[in-house]
Amino acid sequence: MASILFVEDDPSARTALELALTRQGHSVTSRSTGEDGLEALRARRPEIAILDVMLPGIDGIEVCRRIRRGDPLPVILLTARGDDLDVVLGLEAGADDYVVKPVEPRVLDARIRAVLRRAETRADIAAYGDLVIDRGSLKVTRAGTDVRLTPTELRLLLELARRPGQALTRQHLLAEVWEHTYPGDSRLVDACVQRVRAKIEDEPAEPRLIETVRGFGYRFVAP
Fold this sequence. Notes:
This protein is α/β, with parallel strands linked by helices.
């Protein structure tokens, strides 16, 4: 099971979810503020972080952003129902997934397991120009330099590169990478594609490796 850093300022929600996740076999470290969460992360790195967006002081989106500056640690955000702006900002900050509050523990547990499975892949190496993808060691390099990808970003790139030249729908990518089926979650795909492009493309605004198939999805183009 997973070691989890859980940051939630509401005492009752924090206690209830911590208890539920512990019963499901996870090891949970809970904090009530973004500052305390970052301190706990520096003291001991968990396998995944779960952050409430609306935290006092440093909010969950900023905590996610600071984590992403130097760590591919998987992050799940907890957002208020219908708060689309928070979802968009969180995904742009690098979150791997989000769950709408009030949180159903079984749903959160399923999302945790799905995020942690995303690093699983087959062992082989493929080169696309100066981009090299090593599925065995889960490493991506560009012009000989390591590309730091989160597990979700890596799995998205692997899924696209597994079928070069083939247009893949957002729904296909959502099902394969995030293990979701709800069509409204397609913005997870778009936000993650933008982050991957920023890391592997010479000109992210004019991508050559990951093309947009308008009204459909995305295509990986091998040079």
